[in-house]
Inverse folding.
């Protein structure tokens, strides 16, 4: 079993204390928010670069992130 799989197994089986889980959730939320901000800032210049499909790809990633966030909020 790889280290990543081992870590996932520990998270799923509640070996981590609640405080650690909360810290991981906050850290991942902050990372996703940062990624969303960067993609939103990059969306306009991506159209000017001249790379076909770059702006569409950035917009597609933003859509995926938004769908995941909505699903996550519904699950709560």
């Amino acid at each position: 079993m790889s280290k990543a799989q081992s870590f996932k197994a520990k998270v799923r089986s509640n070996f981590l204390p609640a405080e650690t889980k909360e810290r991981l959730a906050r850290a991942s939320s902050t990372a996703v928010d940062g990624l969303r901000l960067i993609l939103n800032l990059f969306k306009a210049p991506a159209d000017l670069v001249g790379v076909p499909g770059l702006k569409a790809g950035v917009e597609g990633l933003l859509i995926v992130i938004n769908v995941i966030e909505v699903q996550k909020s519904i699950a709560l």
